[in-house]
Write the structure tokens for this entry.
Amino acid sequence: MRISVELVPRSQESLASEVAQIKAHLPLVDTINLPDLSSFPLRSWQGCAQVKPLFNAIPHLRAVDIDLAKPLPMATFLAKHGISEVLVIGGDTAPSMSRPVYPTTSLELIKKVRLEHPELTVYAALDPYRQSFRAERDYALRKLEAGAAGLFTQPFFDLRLLELYAELLPSTQVFWGATSVLSERTKQYWLTRNHAILPTDFAPTLAWNRRLAQRVLAFAKAHGGNVYFMPIKVDVVRYLQGIV
């Protein structure tokens, strides 16, 4: 089983600090995955090069950033720094003032990466909240058929929903996600923006979120899966110490 932590690469300094904390206090973590956010200048693969000496590193690649008619722009950088895994996501479709946007889909980018760089292991995203169970399952299967080796899910809050997706995708390598929701504002964000499903006993407390992290980890152990944790507005050690 692999355990990843998703960190926001705000700067080289903040990333170095969080990685050092994880190395010192969370001994079971073996992987760091980094989103690629237009609000910060540090690109995901640049952050992964900084992480790589200590952990496996998985950068997120946004399909809307990639021109299919050109070579994969970060491929040389990935090879130079020994980064062998990537996570393909769709990305925001709204035009960005700082980056050009292309009509590239996740499926197209997965195929491009696998065709042009078969040495890279590609993961794809699964979002249990955006459409019906069957539609999302079928979409995930198309990504696997396109060449994805496995999936990273959006964070789950209800283990019953996680168990259902595990039944829908047997024998699939999955990083099951969990995150920290520690305020009513963040709770409303997940409900209104991401259409998340929260159980009736949900509470925006550190204790509740730590119990969920333990349950997701136990599920992954029992079913041969992987996990990733997304600490939001909480110190990563405070969130996960004693769990991983």
Notes: The mean pLDDT is 96. The chain is about 40% helix and 20% strand.
